[in-house]
Every structure is written in structure tokens, then in C-alpha cells.
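dumping this here so i dont lose it
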């Protein structure tokens, strides 16, 4: 185990990371100084920033993030991003492709109205087993978001860490979520995001293989560096953000 992983494990043990996650403004302030050494991208590169919940208190902050990013390059949809990776569309500068994970009710109430108003496309990676549970979207909500033009991908059934599952269970998480979202929304689901998203720790090569065999064309991780034409869509690198973070903190994740 190399030191950064050991440190990360230790921090997890201390519960610091989860405590900070529960206080995103504090987390953002702690991250911000490291943003001094970074700048938002100016060179050609494809970025996949993603969010989870967007509580009403952070609506203005999400707008600010999106306005800032869009000053650096266009916000494009998932299909267009995959076309850039395939070399079918030119990468003319920084480009941003937005996604949201889990099944948060705030996608309907807060995120979607902002995205529609700002004409920003987005992918929603849905944990199918969370749909209909308290505090989460219903299938009817998802159908309405889909009808409004948003894309849906799979984020497993239960949100368990795939790397911890035996072969059969992991395959069920990957395949059953696809089938259920397809049945409920009447669309084809071809994009997958692994819960937590770190290779080896959170998912294995096996899971990428199973996803490809199940008919997915893309597989998203939470590795952060920019992507370029020729990079594999079965290894999408996304940058996790929280709307409460100041732009200085965003710069620690989305940078040249
Ligand atoms: Zn998730």
C-alpha cells in the first residue's frame, strides 16, 4: 500500500472525511488554499464534474459553479462527450460534461430547474434500489426528468462497494439496475458509474468487463485527470464537487 492510500485509509478510520462531507462549506474552506496553486482549465481537455445532492441552500452556489465553468468552455451532454473521446467531435479547448449520482429528490426540485434555465445538459446516475424510498425520487419523477431531456445511467441497485461483492452479486448490481431503469423509464441505459469509484478499492477490472458484456458503452470512475480523444469510455474520469465549495476548492479538482 503506497502512502497516499494509507493516509486516506487512516483519515477514513478517524471519520474525518465523512465529518467533513457532512459540512461541505467547511470542507470547501479547507480545500480552498490548495486551489491557489491551480487554475481552472485553459488547455484542451474533457472534464466530467459531478455532484450528489443539491439542497435548496446551495442553489445559488450551483449556478455560480456552472456559470464559472461555462466561461472556460462549453457544457456538453454525455453522448457528445463520448463522441469527443472517440475522435468524432473536435476537442477545441476545455469542455465539461456534468453528472449527478444516487437518486436525490433535489435533482427534481433544485438541480433540474437550474440546468434547464441555464441550458446545461446532464446525466443522472441512478441507484435503482433507492428510487421510491423516503427522501429520494420516485420513478414518476425520473420519467419526468427523462422527458425533460436529461439522460439516465446506472449507479447499481444498492450502492454497495462492487469490489467487496462476489462475482454473482456484482454482476446482479450491474445488470439488474440497467434492466430496471430501462423497464421503468422506457429508455436504453448504456452508461454506468461505479459507487465511490476508485479502482481496486471500490471496483475491480472484473466489474468493467461485466459492464461491457451487459451492454454498457461507458463506465465512470472517480479518478480525476482530464480526458482526451483516444481515452477509453470504459474508464471515464470524473471530478467530484459539492456546490457549497468556493471556486478555489473547485480548482483543486478541475484544473489543467
Ligand atoms: Zn453514489
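and the seq i came up w/
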Amino acid at each position: 500500500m503506497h502512502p497516499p492510500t494509507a493516509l486516506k485509509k487512516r483519515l477514513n478510520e478517524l471519520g474525518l472525511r465523512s465529518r467533513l462531507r457532512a459540512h461541505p462549506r467547511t470542507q470547501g474552506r479547507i480545500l480552498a488554499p490548495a486551489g491557489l496553486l491551480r487554475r481552472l482549465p485553459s488547455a484542451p481537455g474533457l472534464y466530467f464534474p459531478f455532484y450528489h445532492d443539491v439542497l435548496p441552500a446551495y442553489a445559488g452556489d450551483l449556478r455560480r459553479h456552472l456559470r464559472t465553468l461555462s466561461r472556460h468552455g462549453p457544457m456538453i451532454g454525455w453522448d457528445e462527450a463520448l463522441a469527443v473521446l472517440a475522435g468524432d467531435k473536435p476537442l477545441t479547448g476545455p469542455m465539461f460534461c456534468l453528472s449527478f449520482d444516487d437518486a436525490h429528490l433535489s435533482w427534481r426540485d433544485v438541480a433540474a430547474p437550474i440546468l434547464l434555465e441555464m441550458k446545461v445538459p446532464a446525466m443522472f446516475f441512478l441507484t435503482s434500489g433507492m428510487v421510491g424510498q423516503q427522501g429520494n425520487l420516485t420513478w414518476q419523477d425520473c420519467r419526468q426528468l427523462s422527458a425533460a431531456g436529461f439522460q439516465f445511467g446506472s449507479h447499481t441497485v444498492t450502492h454497495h462497494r462492487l469490489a467487496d461483492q462476489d462475482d454473482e452479486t456484482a454482476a446482479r448490481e450491474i445488470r439488474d439496475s440497467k434492466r430496471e431503469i430501462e423497464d421503468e423509464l422506457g429508455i436504453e441505459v448504456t452508461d454506468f458509474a461505479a459507487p465511490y469509484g476508485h479502482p481496486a478499492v471500490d471496483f475491480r477490472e472484473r466489474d468493467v468487463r461485466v459492464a461491457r458484456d451487459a451492454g454498457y458503452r461507458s463506465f465512470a470512475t472517480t479518478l480525476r485527470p482530464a480526458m482526451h480523444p483516444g481515452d477509453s469510455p470504459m474508464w471515464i474520469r470524473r471530478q467530484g464537487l459539492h456546490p457549497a465549495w468556493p471556486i478555489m476548492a473547485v480548482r483543486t479538482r478541475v484544473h489543467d
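The chain has one domain: 38-250.
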